[in-house]
Design goal:
9 helices; 2 domains; Cyclophilin; single chain; nine-stranded antiparallel sheet; alpha+beta; 319 residues; 9 strands
């Protein structure tokens, strides 16, 4: 039985929808709850699960979510009560508001108050419509209950001068695109592709490949490198794995239009061999947040309705 953390109530608001719900943080994952609480207030682009069911999630500007250990893990989030709030190692704050289909383990930090569940379901339906159909960009604000609104992108620090300048530039770009679509992704989704990527004038395959490369680069590659650094992987191994994991997908994404990402990656690789563990952690954490932000915008801008004619077929199992 989870216990509420005294005084730890948060408000999750979607101003464009006129909807606010309250959630009580609890003691199931106190380190994750602390990380969330200390980051407040913040704003983000609200997303919705596309294949997993009735689930809201957004990228949270909390670098430590990538590596903060959990105390309690629900083996299958499908079994969690509706209204459960999760913080994940993918740098997400998620809320289950109905039926889920994906049997994924998850780390809960709280629960939406019962009185607000109908409002939460209303928000879920509106966000789904926005992500899938209308492309309306709905922002979410997470704040301490009764506390002020606000927003900031955290900036980590590096002692190496070139790494410090790189971090400053990554943070500036992250701030620029956090609440407004990146110009290069906006162009790409309008069919403006300077490199000519896309055979015979097509655009949809390029959009698909960009989404398919961006998400694992942020979630798996950079998120994994951050966790490996925190968990003590030797620096020579970290350097080697970085060169194996990040260069090729970033160069491809640069060709597709994400030129800033490729430029940041080249600068990172240029200084990689001289970074100590703390500076390596700082740069990879900032890159992860930036790329996960790009990934969120990819999911918002992608024309999902293009495949509306293709619907899942129910498979009946005969006795």
């Amino acid at each position: 039985m989870s216990e509420k953390l005294p005084g730890r109530q948060v408000e999750i608001s979607w101003p464009d929808l006129g909807i606010t719900v309250a959630a009580d943080l609890d003691d199931r994952n106190p380190a994750l709850a602390d990380a969330l609480w200390e980051s407040l207030p913040y704003q983000s682009l609200q997303g919705h699960a596309l294949i997993a069911g009735e689930h809201l999630y957004h990228v949270a500007p909390i670098p430590s979510l990538l590596h903060t250990p959990h105390t309690t893990r629900i083996p299958d989030r499908r079994d969690a009560p509706d209204g459960t709030v999760f913080c994940s190692g993918l740098q997400h704050l998620g809320i289950k508001y109905g039926t889920l289909t994906e049997p994924m383990p998850a780390t809960p930090v709280g629960r939406i108050r019962e009185a607000d569940m109908s409002a939460l379901r209303e928000a879920g339906a509106a966000v789904w419509d926005a992500v899938y159909s209308t492309k309306k960009q709905i922002l979410v604000e997470v704040r301490r209950a009764g506390g002020p609104s606000g927003h900031r992108i955290p900036r980590l620090h590096a002692s190496h001068a070139d790494a410090g300048r790189l971090i400053a530039d990554i943070v500036a770009e992250t701030e620029r695109i956090w609440l407004a679509p990146p110009a290069e992704l906006d162009d790409l989704h309008r069919g403006v592709i300077p490199s000519g990527a896309g055979n015979f004038g097509t655009v949809l395959p390029t959009l698909l490949f960009v989404n398919g490369e961006t998400r694992p680069l942020g979630y798996a590659s950079y998120g994994g490198l951050v966790r490996a650094a925190v968990q003590g992987m030797p620096m020579d191994s970290l350097v080697h794995m970085t060169r194996l994991l990040v260069g090729v997908p970033a160069e491809f994404l640069g060709y597709c239009g994400l030129e800033k990402l490729w430029a940041f990656t080249q600068r990172f690789l240029d200084v990689l061999d001289v970074l100590d563990r703390d500076d390596f952690y700082a740069v990879t954490s900032q890159m992860a947040l930036y790329i996960n932000c790009l990934g969120g915008w990819n999911l918002q801008l992608y024309p999902w309705e293009t495949g509306d004619h293709l619907r899942r077929q129910d498979v009946r199992v005969e006795a």
